[in-house]
Design a protein that fits this description.
With 185 residues, the chain is mainly α. The protein is built from nine helices and no strands. Helix 1 (9-17) crosses helix 2 (21-43), helix 2 packs antiparallel against helix 3 and helix 8 (152-159) packs across helix 9. It is globular.
């Protein structure tokens, strides 16, 4: 198997479209952890996050023949699939009256496991409690940008918005988060 780590995403996508599973495997290796982090921050359950991350890549593989770059990176395509899967996941979960509460509890639990060495558990709990209370698009833009490390352009593609709209949304989301955390007006 040749070393593909130096190849660009566009070339790997084209090779994968021709049926080269190793090329798609390289794309998986590049983005699986970032997708997992995004999903885990939303569902708060390691097993669910692993399952949903696997489903993201399965759907990407199955729909790869329809993928067109349109000037956006491949990672934005993956995060768009992830975001759509999360919407479906929450719809299924909220059919159960306790689903919303269980999701909140899992998110609180995930907060305590994310990075105890950087910020104390209470600070995480406060942060994620504030995120839970925010509008979904505010929460998504902050998680995509700061937890998953996507660029503004990648986030825009994942959210189906323009880069400018994402920058404005990010600014407003940060302002709303600051207000929730600090009480600033």
């Amino acid at each position: 198997m040749p070393d593909r780590s130096g190849l660009g995403d566009a070339l790997l996508v084209e090779q994968a479209k021709q049926g080269d599973a190793d090329a798609f495997g390289e794309l998986h290796d590049r983005y699986a952890l970032r997708v997992f982090r995004f999903v885990y921050a939303r569902v708060g359950n390691h097993q669910d996050a692993e399952d949903l991350t696997s489903e993201v890549f399965l759907r990407a593989w199955r729909s790869l023949h329809r993928y067109r770059s349109r000037g956006y990176p491949f990672s934005a395509y993956l995060f768009r699939i992830a975001r759509n899967l999360l919407v479906d996941h929450y719809r299924r979960e909220q059919k159960d009256e306790q689903g919303a509460q269980q999701a909140a509890n899992r998110l609180r639990h995930a907060v305590s496991n994310l990075d105890d060495d950087v910020i104390q558990k209470q600070e995480y709990a406060t942060l994620y409690a504030a995120l839970e209370q925010m509008r979904e698009d505010y929460r998504d833009v902050l998680l995509l940008r700061f937890v998953s490390g996507l660029s503004s352009e990648e986030t825009a593609r994942a959210m189906g918005r323009s880069s400018g709209a994402v920058r404005v949304l990010q600014h407003r989301a940060l302002k709303a988060l600051r207000k929730r955390l600090c009480g600033d007006d």
